[in-house]
Amino acid sequence: MNATRLFALLCLLTLAIGVTLPFVMPWGKPLAILASLTVVTLITELVLYRIIVRPHRVAEIGMDLLREQDYSTRLAPVGQRDADKIVALFNDLISRLKAEKLHAGEQNHLLNLLIDASPLGILSLDREGRIQIANASSARILGGEVKGKTLAEIASPIAAKCATLSKGETTILRLSDNMVYRCSRLSFMDRGVSHPFFLVEILTEEVLMAEREAYGKAIRMIGHEVNNSMASVGSILSLLLDIRPWGEEDTDISEAVKACSARVAGLSEFISSYSKVVKIPPVRKEGKNLAEFITRLRPLLGAMASDHAISLDLSIIDPSSASIGIDVPLLEQAVINIVKNSVESIGDRPGGHIEISVTGSHRLTVTDNGPGIADEAAGHIFTPFFSTKPSGQGLGLMFVAEILRRHGATFSLATSTEDRLTRFSINFPRTPWN
What we know:
This protein is α+β, with helices and mostly antiparallel strands. It contains 11 helices and 12 strands. Strands 2-1-5-4-3 form a 5-stranded antiparallel sheet, sandwiched between helices.
């Protein structure tokens, strides 16, 4: 029975005794007996209150405090040794819980700050596979707010790649905009349940730096050895052509030596073309209007396209008079290489067309209706020495990418799945050039 109800029942019993006792007791000393019984009953009730009711009430209050997670309130002693021990233990427990809760809150706050400040994209999924945690870096990498979505609902090749990873797997992803990412799938335990989370790390600068060092060293070594050898061979062949020790009548040998000499010159030019990528001069920017810059190149680019029966159009969208900082000779060569790549991609296809568009003061797009870029080649088009052409050297786009990076521009080369047109898009820094 509840102690409070028992105490109330005793009070009612005392009242009933006090009312009925005068009618059943002898009339000699009814008032004295009644007073004695009343005093004894009251003392008994007070003792029972202190022994049963008050400790029980304190225990109820303690349970309510725990249920409501109120760790700031303490219980007062009840004046009973055993009960006061429990009260002291409870207050100590409450103090420890408060300290632990405060520590956990501070740790969680620190963890949230670290997650938000981390350059790594961090994604955590709930039991339904929806993103419940996404820091600022993940939103920037994936192109917008992603909380509450599944990986399949995010229009990003990075999200699509993460969705294919198994637990503990890590992969390197290179996209058509020359960006390189490392995607990892890990897991953590929360209340006994395993939750997957993903880390997306941008490796672009590290990978590009390693590639530049690797191919730069290889090209310099090859160029030094081959050019020295070819120079000696070329000199000997030129001397042979001058003295003709085989006689004037033996034209076959003369033609063979001429062919060898031409091959030596071609090989030297081949090696020199690689060296040009390594020896790109420092960028010297000057203020130029992008639309005027491209308009000045229009005749040259149009002649390149018309030589292959390809039409070329130039459109200026949302014209702006603002200038941006560019290195004119380097950017001219980059644009020529881009258009040349489009011309070679179209080849002899009938109805070949290239459109160059300038949007505002900072965006340049070259669009062609060639066969497009295969999915398996999309992530390698800016990789050193990679080419989809049988006779390609893999230098043109690598040269373009290096020039654009030195201009601080972002760029991508991709074939649209909707209209099947291939677009080389370049976004220069928006900072006006004074």
